[in-house]
Amino acid sequence: MAPIPTPPAEPQDSPDAYVGLTADRAEHLARERGWSAVRALAPETVITMEYRVGRLNFEVKDGRVARAWKG
């Protein structure tokens, strides 16, 4: 039987640190800090609730990050 894969560790980074930054700056910084996937979403965007290790989500309002969360 094959071993259960171990997901890579997430960056030791707080999503709150991105709130208030421009969307472009936040995405650039997140990738520099090691996030493998970064997605920017408009407010009220409907998304699935699957958790993906290494992904950082941004809710962008008026060009700035209003909320950020892992997964």
What labels describe this entry?
71 residues; alpha+beta; 3-stranded mixed β-sheet; 1 helix; 3 strands; 14% helix; 27% strand
Summary?
The chain is built from one helix and three strands, in the order αβββ. The protein has 71 residues and is an alpha+beta fold. Strands 1-2-3 form a three-stranded mixed sheet, covered by helices on one side.
Tell me about this structure:
The protein is built from 1 helix and 3 strands, in the order αβββ. It is an alpha+beta fold and 71 residues long. The termini are far apart. The mean pLDDT is 94. It has one helix at residues 23-32, and strands at 37-41, 55-61, 64-70.
Give the rounded overall mean pLDDT.
94
Cα-atom Rg, whole angstroms?
13 Å
What can be said about the biggest beta sheet? 3 strands, mixed
Task: Please provide the count of β strands.
Answer: 3
Can you tell me the overall shape?
Answer: globular
Percent of sequence in beta strands: 25-35%
Uncertain stretches of 5 or more adjacent residues: none
Q: Give the helix/strand class.
A: alpha+beta
Number of helices: 1
Strand order, sheet with most strands: 1-2-3
End-to-end separation:
29 Å
Could you state the order of secondary-structure elements as H and E?
A: HEEE
